[in-house]
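Most newcomers find our protein records easier to grasp once they have seen one. A record pairs a protein's sequence with a compact description of its fold. An example says more than a description, so a record of this kind follows:
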Amino acid sequence: MQRRKNEYFPEDVKKNNKKLSKRLLFLGILTLLLIITGSVFAYQRHEISLHKATYHALKVNAEKDIKRAKITEKSSDIQKATLAIKKLNSNDKKLFTAQISEINNIINLKNAIASVNTAYKTQLKVDITTAQKNIQKLKTNDKKTLSQKINNLTTGLSDITTATSAIEKAEKDKSSAYEKVSQMKKAAEAQPMDFNAIKNGDYSSLEGTWKTIAFSSNNYDGKGIQWTPDNSNSINQLLISKNKITSFISLSKNQLSESNGSGTVSFNNQKGSLSAEAPVGAIEDSISFYPAGIDITFSLNNGVIDDTSKNRILIRSSNMDSGSIFVQTSKISSTSFSISDVEQATIDTDIKTAQNDINKLTQDWENSKKVTLQNRLNTLIASQSMNLSQIETGNYNTIQGIWKDKNGDTFNVSGNKINWTSSTENTTISGLTLINSEIVQATRKTNAVQLKKDYNKTPNYNNTISGGLDMGVKIDNASGIGGYFIEIDYLPADCVPNTGFFSYDGSSGNTQKDRIIAWSGQNGPGPVYYKQ
């Protein structure tokens, strides 16, 4: 059957309905998809918005934690900020981590500075080690300055240790040398009079310091021999060396001698004493030796007392029954008992080394220690005994410092130079060369005059010093002055000058101390100078 236009059949309706249903279904599904998609998009927008808000809060919190860490610099706050940073994205994390690193750098720098200051304060090895470890945590630029500072500290401490060790060595060497001298002195003090040696012309057991306590005479007025105390020690003197006994009667080997001649000695032992007797012409002379504990076998009077606690020597002449009693006040002679030249040279080297080491302490923080060490070394130098053999050569190491007399005039000894200054004197001694401003140069001669070693030889004056050192010059042709002379006498402790020797003060000073007595011009000796 042929279909007419616009004519519908039931099967057509079914087809159309089916198509329509499909379209409707498609539209429904499409609508549903649109709805779902919109919901998803809406949810995603919500999530994104929510995430942004959360991240912002995390970032704000991280910034707050970093700010707090900067202020407090506490490790707990730094750790908290570090944990907060870990929640951020890589860009923010990198930025904020750099800030934390800067905070740590600041803290490390402060810690390093503090530990360096502590190390300087305590100077302990443990604190120095701590400072060095803290410095290693720093950036290169910060590390350089503090590393140099801690290196200066370690170098300075090493220098201080070196200087201290040098002083300790000097002190030890000095103590050892002086202990030997002390032992020799003790041995000498304990040595008795050796009669056998005396008979053989060896008088070393008698060496030391002897003082006159009395002298005798007989005026033949019926009173007999009269003894007079001699507290001034000025009537007769006694000088003893290993080979000679010198007084108004002298003994050498088997010969007694005096102004009238000499005679051969005969020795007699009696009641613990020894007598050396000899005729000199018609005169009988004798020198008798009485050890401590033995009475003098001669009658004394006028308050003269025999001090049996000491060694004594009685020198007598039958001429007017003149005599003198001498008491040994010390068995020590300063020239016999002094440290050896080798030991003194060692001490001098030690002192020089110590001084050089002290001079290396130039940092400000070392000043207090430097002063302490210098004072310690100065004390060591000042405590040395006067060394005559060195002074003889122009070496003044053992008399360094200021020497003053009772008037305040000074001898200033520095190095190998001496400046003697007073109201009337201005003399400089450099080594063994003397320059004196008082010498008038009208003769156009040089001011410099070489010192002559006059000790034990030909002194320019008539006194002889026992155990001391005379050094001087006699200056001739000085215009308007004549025989102008300068003498300087060095007297170590225990040195007691002999006949008639005295200073301007009227004595040879305190024999327990080193002394200097200076003579100048034509007015005799000056006062005694003592080490300050």
